[in-house]
Design a protein that fits this description.
606 residues; Jelly Rolls; Immunoglobulin-like; TIM Barrel; 8-stranded parallel beta barrel; 6-stranded antiparallel β-sheet; 31% strand; globular; binds (2S,3S,4S,5R)-3,4,5-trihydroxy-6-oxo-oxane-2-carboxylic acid
């Protein structure tokens, strides 16, 4: 018997349900939803014995059955979600329970809910993110598995649900591994758990799953506005009608799906106000297909390069930015709420930023909605960080899958202008091929934005050279450097020359220095606020001497947890390069940068 036949019979007769691959939605947060946020029962299972037998076979009676012990049982049931302690969802487990601060491994989650089915509809479990690998069952039936800790995914749970009482069980495993993206080494906390919001989304049988609407580039002309893109309708054949309407502009267009369920959109609009940091205008946009409709809130703007310029809506712009981790202000842990997003982006605005680099993985949709509203341009990043196994096709597939999910989910946010492919990767041929391929893939998915990456530079005496061959694949160059911190002293910046090997716009994606808030001393005494401020003064003067500098995002807005940072009394497992402490205390360097941004004394005048 051929192998495929054998597999077919095995599946047919073993009764094992093959879980579906989760799918990507655009605008999932615009759907009516039943929230599953709240308290979930949790069981910490370091040996994963809820999923594997003592001979490491996958269990048929795993903890996903949520079994209750009965008096007539002739065997023990050694787990019980009803008596297990709770964890808050969304939330990382590390900052919720002291014993889990450093925990890496599987944790089981369980939650009961009631559900009333609607006719002619499909139901998806929408997970904002679960780090890193997660397995999902509804009423004991496996519904999906997902890999990647920072992207949203949707599992079809329609057939597993029933009217009345239901339960969902998840096993979330944040074990680091060499062939994960990111890999073993990172400089941030490996927060585990269901870290972002979770809900049940109900859609009609035939529904809009993905769409892309953007303003076409006009090479500087702003009088004509043409919006183009596409709407994909899941379950539709050829010829199904699709409508896009912007009521405020009295603009409406109709199209029909092709054989792949995709309807091309192209329509001219009059009187469109372009989205920009000064005026972050969002329009209500209505999408309709069959019996489905979505109400979006979207901004329209163009982003392009011309020589070494970055043009927003046709005009040169300098990106006054800062890097941000998705770390929660005041309480630490993974950020997820509107309030977290508004606090972080509010600080960026106070600093004088028109731009942020959301490092080092895709942030959640809440953050992007806030950036859209607040008028902050965004660099969004794929977690291809440091030294992945660039030889491995499996690792490439994982990186591409995460990029597909990132772009697929976030592609309609006007705030995002840059897709970043990678951060500080080793300069080798396989790495260049790997990331060039990713960049090509990103361009195919979304030709309306710019592609970048944070590169490394090399030194020759006092000259820093940027000639990484990966620069060829990018529209905008990014690089990180730590003059005054990991090399030399603050004054080293004064004698540093720059040799940039490409005529492209350049963003200095990181520079910075560590300082403990409240620690004072001389301007050359490490870890003091004065030292950090001194590094910023010398850095800003130096960066201003790079002719093609078009932006910067110093490292980093707020102190964040990192297990690599062990200095007792100073770091205490926090990276202290924040301009603001994790408790919201502004350090001196914050005000140095704020002055430069407010006075526009850094970067080319716009
Ligand atoms: C870097 C990394 C960033 C680190 C930072 C540091 O170059 O890109 O993830 O946290 O340096 O503080 O060393």
């Amino acid at each position: 018997m051929k192998r495929s036949f054998a597999l077919f019979f095995f599946v047919l007769f073993s009764g094992i349900a093959i879980a579906q691959t989760p799918i990507v939605f655009t605008g999932a947060d615009r759907r009516p939803a039943q929230s599953l946020n709240g308290e979930w029962a949790s069981i910490v299972d370091p040996y994963f014995s809820g999923l594997y037998t003592f001979h490491h076979e996958e269990r048929k009676d795993g903890w996903f059955l949520n079994r209750k012990a009965r008096p007539e049982d002739t065997f023990p049931t050694e787990y019980d979600f009803d008596t297990a302690p709770k964890l808050k969802v969304p939330g990382d487990w590390n900052t919720q329970r002291a014993s889990l601060l450093f925990y890496e491994g599987p944790v089981w989650y369980e939650r009961n809910f009631t559900y009333q089915p609607k006719e002619h509809s499909r139901v998806f479990l929408h997970v904002g993110a679960a780090n890193y690998r997660s397995f999902w069952w509804v009423n004991g039936e496996k519904t999906c598995e997902h890999e990647g800790g920072y992207t949203a995914f949707n599992c079809d749970v329609t057939s597993a649900l029933h009217a009345g009482d239901n339960f969902v069980v998840a096993a979330v495993d944040n074990t680091r591994s060499e062939d994960n993206v990111p890999t073993l080494q990172t400089d941030w906390w490996n927060y585990g758990g269901i870290t972002r919001e979770i809900s049940l989304i109900t859609v009609p049988n035939i529904f809009i799953d993905r769409y892309d609407l953007h303003l076409i580039r006009t090479e500087g002309r702003t009088e004509d506005s043409v919006i183009e893109g596409w709407v994909h309708v899941m379950g539709a054949g050829a010829g199904s009608p699709v409508e896009v309407e912007i009521p405020e502009l009295h603009a409406k267009t109709e199209s029909t799906t092709d054989a792949n369920g995709r309807a091309a959109i192209h329509f001219a609009v009059r009187g469109l106000e372009r989205w920009s940091p000064e005026s972050p205008k969002l329009y209500a946009v209505k999408l309709r297909a069959e019996s489905d409709s979505i109400d979006e809130a979207m901004g329209f703007r163009t982003i392009e390069t011309r020589g070494s310029e970055i043009l927003l809506n046709g005009k040169p712009i300098f990106l006054r930015g800062v890097s941000i981790h998705a770390e929660a202000p005041y309480r630490t842990g993974r950020a997820w709420s509107d309030k977290d997003a508004e606090t972080l982006l509010g600080w960026a605005k106070e600093l004088g930023c028109n731009y942020v680099r959301l490092a080092h993985y895709p942030h959640d949709e809440t953050m992007l909605r806030a950036a859209d509203r607040m008028g902050i341009l965004v660099w969004s990043e794929n977690p291809v960080y440091w030294a992945l196994d660039y030889n491995s096709p499996e690792v490439y597939a994982k990186a591409q899958q995460q990029l597909d999910e990132e772009i697929g989910t976030l592609r309609n946010h006007a705030s995002i202008i840059l897709w970043s492919m990678a951060n500080e990767t080793p300069n080798t041929e396989v790495r260049t091929e790997f990331i060039t391929r990713l960049a090509e893939h990103a361009r195919e998915l979304d030709g309306s934005r710019l592609i970048t990456a944070a590169l490394l530079v090399r030194s020759q005496g006092h000259t820093k050279i940027l000639d990484d061959p990966l620069g060829k694949a990018l529209d905008v160059l990014g690089f990180n450097e730590y003059i005054g911190w990991y090399e030399g002293n603050p004054e080293t910046a004064d004698v540093t020359q720059w040799n940039i090997g490409y005529n492209k716009p350049l963003i200095v994606s990181e520079f910075g220095a560590g300082a403990k808030a409240g620690l004072h001393g001389g301007a050359n005494q490490r870890w003091t606020e004065e030292y950090q401020a001194n590094v910023f003064r010398h850095q800003l003067a130096m960066l201003n001497r790079i002719p093609q500098l078009r932006g910067m995002s110093p490292w980093v807005l707020m102190d964040f947890r990192s297990p690599n940072r062990t200095l007792t009394g100073i770091q205490d497992e926090f990276n202290r390069k924040g301009l603001i402490s994790d408790q919201g205390v502004k350090k001196q360097a914050f005000f140095v940068l704020q002055k430069a941004y407010r006075e526009h004394s850094v970067g080319k005048a716009e």
